[in-house]
């Protein structure tokens, strides 16, 4: 039954066999005839040697003979913009490329302006294929590495390269123009090209072992590569974007990359470790400057983890400054402090205590989110900042205090207390009473609201009440201070 | 002391050259090695043959002829009073190295610079000799960029342009005060005088080439310059202003910015901290806005804060749009090119695609999404056939909606 159906379909279709995967001239000639014979795209099957699918419907014997276009058929419309892109897209590995090209050519006969419509899915696909192929061509020109062998005819430069698409022939002219006076061979899994100084020859597919394994100049080149690299500025993402890992195996210098990266990271770590002159600049003169400074701060490991910094927010002349521990997952995403689950708990209690958070300055002891990734859900799990990290970030909290000049600082939890005092204290021992700070302000310490979230119901009720009492005391004191 | 071997010297003199930002090999005349005796071709568009882990392109063999120097510029690792190891190449050695690398397809050509030995003119002669060997003895047709020494005889500076594709003179610092303080041996009049001479020679040669096919080439890829950012206290607004003056006064192809890197054995006059790398990036973005997006220098400066600094957390185009919200939303189906180019998130390519596509259909938000990278960023600023932002541009939290989220750093060597 299936067999019958399939045969019927093939019997109806025109199977067009191309000479090679990059046979664009052949496609062009056949497509022209098919359009003139008015064969719609869904009746054409393109066959390419070495590509799957074709064999299933094997042999032109099964299929209808290619129709001959009528003598008076007008030549098809082929805009330049189409031809330029099609020539590139035809070299793509995508097995549907010829069908796509023919469908577009067919549609162009009734919609001459189609190529301008980059929002059309076929046009977009064509552009994407062409862009990918162009990039592959460019990368081959960039990343081919010749190695020299001396034979009876003198020096010969040989390279092994693995293109992603069928670009070898298309790229030959570039190498001929550039290395006209050299004898060279480029070996690839698709085939090889060879230039003897006068003639270009094509050869069979090759293997990596056909190319020389080393070259005398490579050590010099590696020395250059390692020396021109500036370890003070590591931008691995930018490198990977332009030089994806799949090219590395055929580039001698790429073998150095892991060591160069590790060396640069160690150097950065040493700078942080010594702690010398972590902050050498003047204190920021505005809260905006702090926000900008914090977002660019890489003075500790958390600052280098790629997350967004969360600066303080609120009134710049607030009488009350509330210091938390560090931004969590939600805070990091929104870029604002105290909006996650613990933040909600805090805001609820503030309201009860009659404290308007918008009248306060809200900030954290540490400005970046420290976390570990937990499989399988890939959740970012909060991790406590280390004492060293708190101490590093303290400079920012101090800068905030210098600008806002709060009369009362409310520290939530041990990290916040350390951030303000510079030493670790036991929250349970020092909570609920004022501590005088150097600038005359008062520090009040209580637990962090996330602590409440971790307790079971029975314990939580008691702690909630103590937390509320601490806030109420602080608020009463604040009223007194305001006089 | 005996000379270090070739490989050691290459290490020293490449290391010494890495603070020059440019590695461009583009914009020159098209050439091939057909009919010649040597190798080399140029295509107009340069090729980056490798990328270093600092994300920078390696297109040219970028080295110093020597890092001995009689000058004492504080920001420079090669200054007279620095303790770095010194080395020198002969012009012949550099030419041979260039050819060896070029034939293996490692590079597009040579970017040669030098510390000043004996005097400026002597040094300039050595640079020119290297280029001469490459061009005349090797018939090398690849790319050559010569860093020109402004204090050398004008006749020598002119000769450099006859061999090189590009010539450049570094203005070094954005302000005269900065130059006086940090580069006591350099004079702004001398630097700008030499740039002005180069400009005249470039224009003259272009003109002659139009009339006589045999007229000599003179720096067909033009001239460029470099400014160090963060070594003095010049604000971004001042730097942008300076760059725009340089572009217009000397017809520069490019102004490069180099974020000051704390150098080993640094002079005490310098800040110890490097400026955030992102600052250099923002300056390049502002440069782009002026060159490709129709922004006037004062408009870029409007994106800066009171202190004249561009925001670090968002790009200058977005910063400008957030300040001038009354210019938005822009109607994707009607607005002229200039207005579309102002929309944050729309690049020149997307604008071209929109202009072409809207001749074919009225664009809906969905269509815009197909023509751009991220429609979410653009949405608040545009009107489409089926979309109008509801007072979105008045929202106080607009910045939070459109500002980029910093993504986690790529873990290169994670399993």
CATH fold-type name of the domain at 6-208 in chain B = TIM Barrel
Strand order of the largest sheet of chain A: 8-10-9-13-15-14
Helix count of chain B?
A: 15
The CATH first-level class of the largest domain in chain A comes to Alpha Beta
Report the portion of residues of chain A in β strands.
5-15%
Distance between the termini of chain B: 47 Å
Give the spatial strand order of the biggest sheet of chain B: 3-4-5-6-7-8
- The geometry of chain B reads as globular
Stretches of chain A where pLDDT is under 50 for at least 5 consecutive residues are 1-10, 54-63
> Which of globular, elongated, flat, extended, rod-shaped describes the shape of chain A?
elongated
Uncertain runs of chain B are: 407-415
Major sheet attributes of chain B: 6 strands, parallel
Distance between the termini of chain A: 94 Å
Oligomer type: heterodimer
The CATH first-level class of the domain at 6-208 in chain B comes to Alpha Beta
List how many beta strands of chain A DSSP finds.
15
- CATH homology group of the domain at 6-208 in chain B: Aldolase class I
Largest sheet of chain A: 6 strands, mixed
Mean pLDDT of chain B: 87
């Amino acid at each position: 039954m299936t067999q019958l159906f399939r045969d019927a379909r093939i019997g109806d279709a025109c199977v067009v066999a191309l000479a090679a995967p990059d046979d664009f001239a052949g496609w062009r000639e056949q497509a022209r005839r098919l359009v003139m014979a008015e064969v719609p795209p869904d009746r054409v099957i393109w066959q390419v040697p070495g590509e799957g699918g074709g064999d299933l419907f094997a042999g032109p014997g099964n299929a209808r003979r290619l129709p001959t276009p009528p003598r008076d058929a007008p030549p098809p419309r082929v805009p330049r913009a189409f031809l330029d892109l099609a020539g590139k897209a035809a070299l793509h590995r995508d097995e549907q490329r010829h069908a796509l090209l023919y469908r577009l050519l067919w549609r162009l006969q009734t919609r001459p302006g189609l190529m301008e419509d980059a929002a059309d899915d076929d046009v977009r696909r064509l552009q994407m294929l062409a862009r990918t192929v162009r990039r592959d061509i460019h990368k081959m020109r960039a990343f081919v590495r010749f190695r020299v062998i001396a034979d009876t005819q003198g020096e010969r430069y040989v390279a092994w390269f693995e293109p992603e698409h069928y670009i070898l022939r298309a790229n030959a002219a570039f190498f001929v123009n550039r290395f006209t006076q050299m004898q060279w061979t480029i070996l690839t899994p698709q085939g090889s090209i060879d230039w003897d100084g006068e003639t270009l020859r094509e050869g069979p597919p090759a293997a990596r072992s056909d190319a020389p394994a080393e070259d005398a100049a490579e050590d010099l080149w590696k020395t250059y590569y390692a020396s021109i690299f500036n370890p003070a500025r590591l931008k691995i993402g930018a490198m990977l974007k332009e030089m994806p890992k799949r090219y590395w195996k055929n580039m001698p210098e790429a073998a150095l990359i892991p060591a160069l990266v590790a060396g640069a990271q160690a150097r950065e770590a040493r700078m942080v470790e010594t702690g010398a002159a972590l902050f050498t600049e003047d204190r920021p003169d505005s809260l905006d400057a702090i926000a900008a400074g914090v977002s660019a701060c890489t003075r500790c490991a958390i600052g280098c983890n790629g997350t967004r910094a969360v600066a303080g927010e609120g009134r710049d002349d607030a009488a009350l400054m509330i210091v938390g521990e560090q931004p969590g997952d939600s805070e990091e995403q929104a870029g604002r402090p105290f909006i996650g689950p613990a933040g909600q708990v805090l805001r609820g209690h503030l309201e009860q205590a009659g404290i308007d958070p918008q009248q306060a300055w809200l900030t954290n002891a540490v400005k970046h989110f420290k976390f570990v990734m937990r499989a399988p859900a890939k959740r970012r799990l909060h991790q406590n900042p280390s004492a060293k990290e708190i101490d590093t970030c303290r400079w920012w909290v101090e800068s905030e205090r210098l600008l806002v000049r709060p009369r009362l600082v409310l520290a939530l939890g041990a990290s916040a207390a350390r951030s303000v005092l510079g030493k670790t204290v036991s929250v349970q021992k020092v909570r609920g009473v004022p501590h005088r700070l150097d600038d005359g302000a008062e520090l009040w310490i209580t637990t962090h609201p996330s602590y409440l979230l971790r307790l079971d119901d029975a314990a939580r009720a008691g702690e909630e009440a103590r937390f509320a009492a601490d806030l109420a005391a602080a608020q009463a004191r604040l009223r007194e201070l305001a006089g | 002391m005996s000379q270090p071997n070739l490989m050691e010297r290459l290490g020293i003199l490449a290391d010494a050259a890495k603070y020059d930002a440019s590695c461009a090999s583009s914009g020159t005349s098209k050439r091939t090695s057909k009919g010649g005796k040597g190798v080399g071709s140029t295509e107009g568009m340069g090729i980056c043959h490798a990328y270093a882990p600092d994300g920078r392109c390696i297109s040219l063999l970028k080295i110093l002829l020597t890092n001995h120097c009689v000058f004492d510029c504080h920001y420079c690792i090669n200054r007279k009073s620095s303790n770095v190891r010194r080395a020198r190449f002969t012009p012949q050695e550099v030419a041979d190295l260039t050819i060896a690398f070029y034939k293996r397809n490692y590079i597009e050509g040579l970017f040669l610079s030098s510390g000043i030995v004996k005097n400026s003119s002597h040094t300039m002669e050595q640079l020119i000799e290297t280029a001469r060997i490459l061009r005349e003895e090797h018939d090398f047709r690849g790319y050559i960029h010569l860093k020109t020494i402004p204090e050398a005889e004008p006749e020598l500076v002119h000769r450099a342009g006859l061999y090189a594709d590009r010539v450049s003179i570094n203005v070094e610092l954005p302000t005269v005060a900065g130059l006086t303080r940090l580069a006591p041996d350099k004079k702004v009049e001398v630097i700008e005088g030499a740039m002005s001479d180069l400009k005249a020679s470039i224009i003259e040669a272009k003109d002659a080439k139009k009339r006589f096919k045999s007229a000599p080439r003179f720096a067909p890829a033009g001239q460029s310059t470099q400014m160090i950012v963060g070594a003095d206290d010049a604000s971004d607004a001042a730097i942008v202003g300076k760059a725009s003056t340089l572009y217009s006064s000397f017809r520069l192809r490019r102004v490069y910015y180099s974020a000051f890197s704390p150098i080993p054995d640094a002079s005490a006059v310098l800040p110890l901290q490097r400026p955030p790398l992102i600052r250099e990036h923002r300056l390049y973005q502002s440069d782009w806005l002026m060159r490709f997006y129709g922004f006037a220098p004062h408009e870029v400066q409007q994106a800066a804060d009171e202190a004249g600094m561009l925001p670090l957390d968002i790009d200058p185009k977005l910063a400008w749009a957030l300040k001038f919200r009354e210019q938005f939303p822009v109607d994707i189906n009607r607005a002229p090119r200039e207005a579309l180019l102002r929309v944050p998130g729309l690049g020149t390519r997307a604008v071209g695609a929109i202009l072409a596509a809207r001749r074919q259909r009225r664009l809906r938000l969905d269509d815009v999404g197909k023509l751009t990278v991220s429609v979410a960023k653009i949405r608040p600023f545009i009107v489409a056939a089926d979309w109008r932002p509801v007072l979105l541009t008045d929202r106080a939290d607009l910045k939070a909606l459109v500002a980029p989220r910093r993504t986690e750093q790529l873990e290169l060597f994670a399993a």
